[in-house]
Specification:
The complex is a heterodimer of chains A (111) and B (112). By secondary structure, chain A is mainly β. Chain A has no helices and eleven strands. The model of chain A has no long low-confidence stretch (mean pLDDT 90). Helices cover 0% and strands 51% of the residues of chain B. Chain B has strands at 4-7, 10-13, 19-25, 31-37, 43-51, 54-57, 64-66, 76-78, 87-94, 101-103, 107-111. In chain B, strands 2, 4, 5, 6, 9, 10 and 11 form a seven-stranded mixed sheet that branches.
């Protein structure tokens, strides 16, 4: 049972470009929409998160856009850098108490 | 420092052996989770626990077992019944469902 669908599976951008990753969720009871960043061999770490009372949140080069009617939220990375190369996961809530994650997007930023 | 600690970082298992992965947190979180990550794959939920002495199966619980005798600890045992245990295992904890989940640095298990 998939509670959250993430796309694309992989993404290659040039340095300075914009990276966009999308996440579609099913559980409308969810009220916390985070993105996690994972580097190889490490555990994921929270990058940025949004609550549904706002449509957009920006932290530095990272922006979350939230569309409640479409049940989607997106991560935008402006001025992408090689150091942003990582795997990104969105998260939702599955069933009563489960945390479920998207399948991940491997981002590669070429110098 | 507050955080979540997994040990060991690398673990090797022989065929037919049970092995236990440790996960300890000092964040005073009620909920703890175990995920499995295969190369190029997402995070698949193995088991989760919302309270001491209680836990539920996730999506891929077969061949695994857990215990939650203390709030701070949630060890995962990979049993010989798990036919393909080689993977990266991640433990996480959170206060509530709608707050940040913190991850450990993972344990890489290899069958030799």
């Amino acid at each position: 049972q998939q509670q959250v669908k993430q796309s694309p599976q992989s993404l290659i951008v040039q340095k300075g470009g914009i990276s966009i990753i999308n996440c579609a969720y099913e559980n409308t009871a969810f009220d916390y929409f985070p993105w996690y960043q994972q580097f190889p061999g490490k555990g994921p770490a929270l990058l940025i998160a949004i609550r549904p009372d706002v449509s957009e949140k920006k932290e530095g080069r990272f922006t979350i856009s939230f569309n409640k009617s479409a049940k989607q939220f997106s991560l935008h990375i402006m001025d992408s850098q090689p150091g942003d190369s990582a795997t990104y996961f969105c998260r939702s809530r599955g069933g009563s108490e489960k945390l479920v994650f998207g399948k991940g997007t491997k981002l590669t930023v070429n110098p | 420092d507050g955080g979540i600690t997994q040990s060991p970082k690398y673990l090797f298992r022989k065929e037919g052996q049970n092995v236990t992965l440790s996960c300890e947190q000092n964040l005073n979180h009620d909920a703890m989770y175990w995920y499995r990550q295969d190369p190029g794959q997402g995070l698949r939920l193995i088991y989760y626990s919302q309270i001491v002495n209680d836990f539920q199966k996730g999506d891929i619980a077969e061949g695994y077992s857990v215990s939650r005798e203390k709030k701070e600890s949630f060890p995962l045992t990979v049993t010989s019944a798990q036919k393909n245990p080689t993977a990266f295992y991640l433990c996480a904890s959170s206060m509530l469902l709608n707050t940040e989940a913190f991850f450990g640095q993972g344990t890489r298990l290899t069958v030799v």
